[in-house]
Design a protein that fits this description.
The protein has eleven helices and nine strands. By secondary structure, it is α/β, with parallel strands linked by helices. The strands form two sheets. A five-stranded parallel sheet has the order 2-1-3-4-5, with helices on both faces. The chain is globular and about 55 Å long. The N and C termini lie far apart (42 Å).
């Protein structure tokens, strides 16, 4: 493995990561023009891969805000016989087979909304309404800015209906934190580690899953993700010298000491950064690790921008 470089990556993925603060601010404005879920509605949120993890984050945050029962499902595992007031789908491409199949099955019996970067794609024909976020689209295979922009739009919708929990920042505050997250140096010991475990609580567990996915996609890295309080129920056994435990958001009492006893490296911004901004640091880590291994983060192995299944 090459030694990690302190210079900025010239990859397309890194360039798109850098645009996120502006995208989030624009998403806050787009939310006002979008018919997002209203308080009291029973809502399900769906997507595939990265979009599913954003769905998980939003669902947990909406329930924490007291705005209504909210579930999140991978589109292939959606319980189609369950009744919801509204189903929200997140799909960057607007062409993902499982998302299109689900929305087609729900058409005419459940209100549906699709957040997409492809407003002219097939999702427009099967979703009841579409929130176009095409200005956050990406050339990269690996999703970064579209996913967080969709979540920023949904977060702004929650803000419009009332205050969020006291420990959750506004989208405007998150965007300011994102600017800091883009410029902070990544510790060399974290870039050169051999394994990374990402942890979260509540809505940040979805972000932890997404952080781990970015590392697997861009860098082919050994990463895992768990709810933070589950970490000590087995997963901590993998933490050791040269391995990282990264906590997004609230740090459970006693967990840093447990990581220290294991010999692992702890990464925890805590309340210093909005967890979505901390995810940006994990995105940057994925690019840095890929390049330190001689890999091109713009060309991940075995992946395409959209999964379109035959038949």
């Amino acid at each position: 493995m090459q030694q990690p470089s302190s210079s900025r990556s010239a990859s397309r993925t890194a360039a798109e990561i850098d645009t996120q603060p502006g995208c989030w601010r624009r998403a806050a404005g787009a939310a006002a023009a979008t018919e997002l879920p209203r308080p009291g509605e029973r809502v399900a949120v769906t997507g595939c891969g990265t979009s599913w993890f954003m769905a998980q984050a939003y669902a947990a945050l909406r329930e924490a805000a007291g705005q209504g029962e909210t579930d999140a499902f991978a589109s292939s595992e959606f319980p189609r016989g369950r009744a919801y007031d509204r189903v929200v789908a997140i799909t960057r491409s607007g062409t993902t087979t499982e998302v299109l199949d689900l929305l087609s099955a729900l058409r005419g019996r459940t209100r549906t909304l699709a957040l997409t970067a492809g407003p002219g794609t097939p999702v427009t024909d099967v979703a009841g309404s579409v929130a176009p976020l095409d200005w956050a689209d990406e050339e990269s295979v690996v999703q970064t800015r579209f996913a967080t922009t969709a979540l920023a739009c949904l977060r702004a919708g929650l803000e419009a209906y009332g205050p969020l929990p006291s420990d959750v920042r506004t989208v405007a505050e998150a965007a300011a934190d994102a600017e800091s997250a883009l410029t902070e140096p990544l510790p060399p010991s974290v870039v050169s580690a051999g394994q990374w475990t990402f942890l979260g609580t509540g809505w940040t567990y979805g972000l932890a899953q997404e952080a781990a996915l970015k590392m697997r996609e861009a860098a082919g890295a050994w990463t895992e993700s768990y709810p933070a309080m589950e970490y000590r129920h087995g997963p901590i056994s993998i933490t050791a010298p040269g391995r990282v435990a990264w906590i997004l958001g609230t740090v459970p009492a006693g967990l840093p000491a447990d990581v220290e006893r294991s010999g692992g490296t702890l990464v925890a911004a805590g309340s210093r950064l909005d967890p979505m901004a901390d995810l940006i640091r994990a995105q940057r880590l994925a690019v840095a690790v890929a390049e330190s291994k001689g890999l091109n983060p713009d060309e991940p192995r075995g992946l395409t921008r959209s999964v379109i299944l035959n038949g």
